Request: fold
Amino acid sequence: MRTAATRGGAPAGEAARDSFAWPFTTPLYVGSALNPVNSSIIATAMVPIAADLNVPVGSTAVLVSSLYLASAVAQPTAGKLAEVLGPRRIFLSGIVLVLLGGVVGGLGHNLATLTVARVLIGLGTSAAYPCAMVMIRRRAQDDGLTAPPGSVLGGLAIAGMATAAVGPPIGGLLVGAAGWRWAFLINIPITAIALVMAVRWLPKDPPLDRADSGLRKVAERIDLPGVLGFAASMTALVVFLMGLPNPEWIALAVFVVAAAPTVVWELRTEAPFFDLRGLAANGALARTYLRQALTLLGVYSVMYGMTQWMETAHGFSTVQAGLLLLPMGAVSALLSSPLARRNLVRGPLVVAAVSMLAGSAGIVLLTSSSPAIVIVLVSLVFGVVSATTTVGNQTALYLSAPADQIGTASGLFRTFGYLGTITSSVIGSIVFRDGANDQGLHSLGLVLVAAGVAVLLLTVLDGRLMGRGRDGQSDTVNTLNTLNSSEQPTKENQA
Reply:
């Protein structure tokens, strides 16, 4: 499925290049890479942190879970704030929080301080992606582009997903050469550079109307009760999931108690934070969220589950295991950009589902005597999964989300991805409860086969996505037609 667009008679690619020059996109890419890199870079620092702080290795898992929890809650919240207060303001605020988290973590001397630092990093890095999507969507509308700026979305796909794979090897090199504190301190120079670029190159937000900038008015516009209810519900759900296979029933009870009134409120309020009615009516967007969660479950199961297995059953060092997975990130990065430039949706999503099934079957066949090259080949298949699912789902998100809700929708897109990531760690703890051995790896592979089947069904049975809509057009084409007829701004409207 391929789309095209023009602006003033110019080809789509030329129009996109004019609208999205490198000074605009570079800070967006750098900011969007901070969350996935920080998600994975801590992996190689957990054992040294435990040894230096004299705490059990298992207790350092809070450094992973705290960032996941903060990110899952903060992503859609940051998107909503970007829609209301301006994406540049929220983007810059997020960068400052990451900088602060890097300082706190680098100077921290106990696990509580490091956990606070990880929460700050999670909150701060969560602002970049939804803010980037808001700025990209608004610029495309202002310049009259009628199709997604594929090359720009491709850059975000690389920054948002492929960079996660480089976290473990970067972390291994930093921790090995300079100590575990650099898993935090690395954020200081990166965020300083990102802050300077953002201040200089990102367009300023329009001035806030005094009537709309008061605390009470802002709280109304962002639906503060909905935000708080979502945060409480999501926090309880994530705590429950992370506690498995030893369920935290209190967390589940808190989830139910928080979620029920939140749902009632969101269904009744005029401008909800989490538009449940809109999501129920927008099947394309709901399926995009589900596909993203399931496929990231597979990618992160490989990234973390296979890493444990390689170190325990195969005897590889932490650095060796990280380097063996590095080609997976490289394949994901190499494929993402050319796929995104063509604005493809259906093809990449079908390839993602089939590749996930093939890669999962490969995991079932691996043993502790399998040569390293075979392990790399299986991981490369998941590199294809990573690229195709990120590109296909991100383009589907751009097209199916309402333009005025793209920030919140982008944040929820990331939240569902985090739920998939968190579920992958839960599955890993269950299948490896007796040790990261071949039997546990094969059980993990079978779970991923089932997830791959679900992704394939969500794709091929989607009549609109597969071009079986009432008018024979694909979902992307229908959405583009909607964009052309109702969302393209005119000079009069801009004036």
